[in-house]
Amino acid sequence: MILLIGYGNRLRRDDGLGPALLDLAGARFAAPDLCTFELQQLVPELAAELAAPGVTAALFLDAGPADAASPPGTVTVSQLLPRVDGSPLGHQLAPEELLTVARALYGATPAAWLVTVAGADFGYGGELSAAVRSGLDEALAVVGTLLTTIRGEAPATARSAGSRPG
């Protein structure tokens, strides 16, 4: 099972990139091994889904900040490892922190990647900026490539050792 997790707020313009990309990717790549989640933010309760038996990978989809190196519309993909930046007990977590919670509570984490598109406008509104809309096709292609790779090379060793509590 591959988890496709789009997160962000659809009412904060480019922050809605994660859910918008999830809509597109879920429709284009729908398959029995793909499970989609739309969230406004990553919450600790998602750790059980990440650590569930049979989950081989998770793709997190989100908007990111633009900067000189990544102007609005830039697509970035990075492989994730469990990591704690702050308190893992908060109500909102980074993907790496969520992986840490999954490992700590359930003894397992799937291979995980984060796909972002640098945003230009995080104000109030329901539409993505033109810059982010221009990055959607590339982001969708990146998701497709990752799904193909994951399905073809299921990383059996990506799950950490451990057992789920009974």
Quick rundown:
It contains four helices and five strands; from the N terminus they run E-H-E-H-E-E-H-E-H. The chain has 166 residues and is α/β, with parallel strands linked by helices.
Give a structural overview.
With 166 residues, this protein is of the alpha/beta class. Helix content is 31%, strand content 20%. It has 4 helices and 5 strands, in the order βαβαββαβα. It has helices at 17-28, 47-50, 95-106, 130-152, and strands at residues 2-7, 34-39, 57-64, 75-80, 111-118. It has a 5-stranded mixed sheet. Strand 1, helix 1 and strand 2 form a beta-alpha-beta unit. Helix 1 (17-28) packs across helix 4 (130-152). The longest helix is centred in the last third of the chain and has 23 residues, at 130-152. The two termini are 21 Å apart. Mean pLDDT is 89; it is low at 154-166. It comes from Geotalea uraniireducens. InterPro entries: Pept_HybD-like_dom_sf, Peptidase_A31. This is Hydrogenase.
What do the pLDDT scores average to?
89
Low-confidence stretches: 154-166
Number of E-type strands: 5
Fraction in beta strands: 15-25%
Written as H for each helix and E for each strand, in order along the chain, the element string is EHEHEEHEH
Number of helical segments with 4 or more residues: 4
| Major β-sheet profile | 5 strands, mixed
| Structural category | alpha/beta
Oligomer: single chain
Rounded to an integer in angstroms, the radius of gyration calculated over CA atoms is 15 Å
The main sheet orders its strands as: 2-1-3-5-4
Q: What shape does the CA trace take?
A: globular
Q: Roughly what percent helix?
A: 25-40%
Ends apart, CA distance between termini: 21 Å
Protein name: Hydrogenase
InterPro entries: Pept_HybD-like_dom_sf, Peptidase_A31
Organism: Geotalea uraniireducens
